[in-house]
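Researcher: Quick one. two chains, 233 residues in total.
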Amino acid sequence: QVQLQQWGAGLLKPSETLSLTCAVYGGSFSGYYWSWIRQPPGKGLEWIGEINHSGSTNYNPSLKSRVTISVDTSKNQFSLKLSSVTAADTAVYYCARDVWFGEPPRWRYYGMDVWGQGTTVTVSS
Amino acid sequence: EIVLTQSPATLSLSPGERATLSCRASQSVSSYLAWYQQKPGQAPRLLIYDASNRATGIPARFSGSGSGTDFTLTISSLEPEDFAVYYCQQRSNWPPSSFGQGTKLEIK
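Model:
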């Protein structure tokens, strides 16, 4: 059974860089997109971006200038960096496996079926 | 960017009742829509994919319908463990993918 385990610094000062890593255990790393999602306290979910095993990325335009998602296939891990953080970046950050299936041109979307446990990141001076 | 609007914001029902949650997209997302359930302190759980298909292990009381811009999640008979927040998510015309703001299903 696939499991995602994530870790990273939980307390940052404004202008610092958020850095989180998510490790994939018990399943294939290739053939999927791997996503980061965040949830500010008491609010809804926001998609940050994604990467596949070959390093192809997509980012939320609202965060694109500050976000970098990278992959280390030798360790079955992917990472998130968010630069110049402010209090508005305070949130629980999740990693997730994002699944598509089918064949072109009729790809179908399965959804984010496996999630990490979440990491609470607080930005405060 | 496609905006998903969920209604109602809060739904108060009793166990055994039927729940109907709505998700409306600002433009067509075809059937590229998923539903998630989130309980306090937990990560979201995938319920429905492709707008109307139950994900693996999801009970039959959960069903999804719709295509284009209007979607519905129905829980046929509420169990105590179903009281949670529900989100819809679209994967059409991305990036970005986007989520609705959520519907809180609370016990009446």
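The radius of gyration of chain B is 13 Å.
Researcher: Thanks, that's what I needed.
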